[in-house]
Amino acid sequence: MTAGSHTQGEVNPVADPVDSPFTTRQLLRLDEALRIADESTGLTYSLYVGELDEPVRGHAEKLLAELPAPDDSVLLAVSPGQRVLEIVTGANARKRITDRDAKLAALSMAAAFTGGDLAGGVISGLAQLADRGGRSR
Amino acid sequence: MLIYVIVPAVIFAVVAALAMLGGSRRRGRRYRPGRPYEFTPVWFLSNAAGGAEPGGGRELAAGGTYRALPATSAAAGLTVQERPAGPRGTGGASDRW
């Protein structure tokens, strides 16, 4: 795959794939995981990977608020540089995904990240949250 | 006697070449905790959810348009499982590694 080519699917590798922390294959799996999570639960899942300004929790919540439907959204914010991750569930989403479910997903993600597996941790975290999110109406 | 030198050397060279070629096939630098993370922040969104995100991803400059929030003690530093709701009724969890 040549640098700069677009993958088929929704995720756009924003920069040259060489500049992304994920390989093209991982991006495809990530996109698929997001799509499945959205479709099976009806909630909107999104993933932010990058630096978070202090206070980290506040920045993550502000990011969620920027989404079109924040109450029905779930945001996974991962900052590998600061080694912190935040899961933010919207007001409606948190009735279906309890804070305890989110904490369990966060624990498994942190375990994967400790091993250096960024993509795998994120994808399995998404799968866990999607599974807990229940069925879409 | 030369055979005992050349043949192992050739085998060594072949194996080394395969190892190096196999390593470079992996695109993207492998993340390891503790190493600096210097990629631009990326925000992934499935395209089905709102066309507001062109191409399904939005690039944010680090610290670009984010304004400082008024101090809120609601969720700062809490890592217990039952946390009070955030400013807009949000929930979730945090963790570090």
Descriptive overview:
The complex is a heterodimer of chains A (137) and B (97). Chain A is an alpha+beta fold and 137 residues long. In chain A, 46% of the residues lie in helices and 14% in strands. Chain A contains 5 helices and 3 strands. Chain A has helices at residues 24-41, 56-65, 93-96, 99-114, 118-132; strands at residues 44-49, 73-79, 84-89. Chain A has a 3-stranded mixed β-sheet with strand order 1-2-3, with helices on both faces. In chain A, strand 2 (73-79) and strand 3 (84-89) form a beta hairpin. In chain A, helix 1 (24-41) packs parallel to helix 5 and helix 4 (99-114) runs antiparallel to helix 5 (118-132). The model of chain A is unreliable at 1-13 (pLDDT under 50). Chain B is an alpha+beta fold and 97 residues long. Chain B has one helix at residues 3-24; strands at 42-45, 57-59, 91-96. A two-stranded antiparallel sheet of chain B has the order 1-2. The longest helix of chain B has 22 residues, at 3-24. Chain B starts with a helix and ends with a strand. Mean pLDDT of chain B is 68; it is low at 49-80. Chains A and B meet through helix 1, strand 1, helix 2, strand 2 and strand 3 of A and strand 1, strand 2 and strand 3 of B. Strand 3 (84-89) of chain A pairs antiparallel with strand 3 (91-96) of chain B, so a sheet runs across the interface.
Write the layout of secondary structure elements.
The complex is a heterodimer of chains A (137) and B (97).
Chain A: H1 24-41, E1 44-49, H2 56-65, E2 73-79, E3 84-89, H3 93-96, H4 99-114, H5 118-132
Parallel strand pairs in A: 1-2
Antiparallel strand pairs in A: 2-3
Helix pairs in contact in A: 1-5, 4-5
Chain B: H1 3-24, E1 42-45, E2 57-59, E3 91-96
